[in-house]
Amino acid sequence: MQNKIKNILLDVNKPSRYIGKEIGSYNKDWNKTQVRVNIAFPDLYEIGISNLGHRILYHIINTSSDDYLADRSYAPDIDFKEQLIKHNLPLYGVETFKPLIDFDLVAFSLQYEISYPTILTMLEMGKIPIYSKERNYSHPLIIAGGPGSLNPEPLAGFIDAFIIGDGEDVLVEILEASKISKLNKESREESLKRLSKIEGIYIPEFYNVPENFSKPVPVNSEFPEKINKRISDFDSKYYPVNFPVPYSSSIHDRAVIEIRRGCGRMCRFCQSCFANLPVREREPEKVIELTEETLHNTGYDEYSLLSLSSSDYRNIEPLVCELNRRHALSGASISLPSQRADAFSLVLANEVQ
Fold it and tell me: Which residue, among 15, 24, 43, has the nearest Cα to 251 in the 3D structure?
């Protein structure tokens, strides 16, 4: 498979999108792991490789146990897609060069609605039946999470299991359940039933949606009537300070440190503040520690303090001053996304400058 891909790379734009082996990638041995997961991002490589959630899931799977392997797939650009179709090659993981159909789990990130058709295209290119009902024991389980999973019904016919809420803790539980199912050689239905016992997991197959599109009703009392949203404790042990650094430029070509999750302003136009409630903040000392480790491991000369509204972080001014004191002389610059005029100060303006 790898040799076949190499033969067509010279005919496509930006071949580095499709070969993996970036600095910071794990490249685990396929034959030495039990549960293999493909983290599939339904957009171009430049967007997916920059996504913090994508980095977090990749880090958790590869570091939580030697039994677990995480590879990555991205939506191919038009030129590479045409080459794959022309040579009858499936969509694959960029590190293992294994087709999507060979993995135990394929996990999609639902960041925005316009990516939904791309998910179906990636399944089709990975030689996986698009509809859940057409898959059997030989096919991987298709799971999805992210902001788009808060309303899972548009994709209910295609996705086997949805993660509702934060994915850090629940992902580890999914891996453990999948390992048990695989060792016990459980059927597809038995595997899904095992996953349904995990809080925050919605399995559309076990629910009926009324004609008036009201709340889904479980097919029997074995399944919960209400799916509780999972909320992570924002533990820094899950935070990736070492991650794949792309060879070509990406959309957000910098180190990213998440300082705050959620937003208390509750603007009615904003989906993210509702999707990420409750508001949680990382301690300043931990932010400084994560920043130092990330810059050291990745070599970036710019880092961003990520939040829905970073100026609302309660210790933002002293934090930025301390980070500048430590890193400005080394040439590492700081950026603050999502600034609000009513919380932005002259102190922050001078420090960012």
Answer: 43
Which residues, other chains included, contact 69 with Cβ-Cβ below 8 Å and sequence gap of 6+? 26, 28, 30, 33, 35, 36, 37, 61, 62, 96
Rounded Cα–Cα distance for residues 305 and 323 (Å)? 11
Q: Report the C-alpha gap between 67 and 83 in whole angstroms.
A: 34
Please say if the pLDDT value at position 214 is more than 90. Answer: no
Measure the CA–CA gap between 250 and 286, rounded to whole angstroms.
Answer: 26
Question: Residue 37: which of 63, 2, 16, 18 has the closest Cα?
Answer: 63
List pLDDT tens digits, range 251-292.
889 999 999 998 888 888 888 888 888 999 999 999 999 999
Report the distance separating Cα 325 and Cα 168, nearest Å.
32
Closest CA to 290 of 246, 244, 253, 255: 255
Q: How many alpha carbons fall within 13 Å on the CB side of residue 279? A: 12
What number is the average pLDDT over the span 166-184? 95
Which residues neighbour 143 within 8 Å (Cβ) at sequence distance 6 or greater?
105, 106, 107, 108, 159, 160, 161, 162, 163, 174
Distances (CA, A) of 158 to 83, 252, 330: 26, 30, 49
- Which of 117, 161, 122 minimizes the C-alpha distance to 142? 161
Q: Which residue has the higher pLDDT, 213 or 16?
A: 16
Using a cut of 0.70, tell me whether the model's pTM lies above it: yes
The mean of the pLDDT values for the chain is 92
Q: Are the C-beta atoms of residues 303 and 335 closer than 8 Å to each other? A: yes
SS3 content of the chain, % helix, strand, coil (to 5): 40, 15, 45
Unique residue bearing structure tokens 């920059």: 50
Is 352's pLDDT higher than 90? no
> In this structure, what DSSP letter does residue 66 have?
T
Give 96's pLDDT tier (boundaries 50, 70, 90). Answer: very high
Helix (H) or strand (E) segment spanning residue 127: none
